[in-house]
Amino acid sequence: MATTIQAPPAAAERHQLYEDALAMLMGTLFIALGMLIYSKTMLLTGSTAGLALLLSYVTKVQFGIIFFTINLPFYWLAWKRLGWKFTARTFIAVALVTLFSRLTDQWVGFTHLDPVYATVVGSGLCGTGLLMLFRHRTGLGGVNILAIYLQETYGIRAGYFQLGVDFAILAGAFFVLAPDRLLLSVLGATIVNVTLAINHKPGRYLGIS
């Protein structure tokens, strides 16, 4: 039997369609830019994408195949537990990040990018983008779906849960990444997830989609 999502507070104001669309557009643009900054400095991201990337380093299997396979059970969870609307929005968000990640590399160029600055700004962009998506009941696949489900069902903070998952992924990268990039990746994961933990508390934001 599917778990019922907690009903929003009576005072909650429903988002308009254009508000959901703008949040998805800006959120995915922020994340795509953050990921580009990460890629230019060889940092490892967290969540499902980070796990797929790490596994591709170890197994030599194409990243896209691993990423698609890992996400399958999470999309099923989203459909069964969080509803078809959430699942549809998540599919669209994943597609937009995929598209914008390719286009952003053509729109933006870097002649110099300090790794520490890249870590702080890149993770800040990703955290803010995810916050936009979360507040409009949209995930970015994989661990994001599970994090939202656990918060709405059991009250477990999405940011803290993702932080634990990201640390586990980064621990597995100990023998893959250079030590300085590993430490910066840990810092980046902390910034992303603390941003979510502070700003995505149950009941703090009452808008619903």
From TrEMBL:
Q: Where in the cell is it found?
A: Cell membrane
**Membrane-spanning segments:** 21-39, 51-74, 86-104, 116-134, 154-176, 182-199
* Entry GO CC: plasma membrane
Looking up InterPro entries in the UniProt record yields:
UPF0750_membrane (IPR051461), YitT (IPR003740)
Superkingdom is Bacteria
Key word Oxidoreductase present: no
This protein's membrane topology, according to the annotation, is: Multi-pass membrane protein
Keywords attached to this Swiss-Prot or TrEMBL record, sorted alphabetically, are:
Cell membrane, Membrane, Transmembrane, Transmembrane helix
Name the principal localization, coarsely classed. membrane
Q: State what protein this is by name.
A: YitT family protein
What species is given as this protein's source?
A: Azospirillum palustre
- Taxonomic placement: Bacteria, Pseudomonadati, Pseudomonadota, Alphaproteobacteria, Rhodospirillales
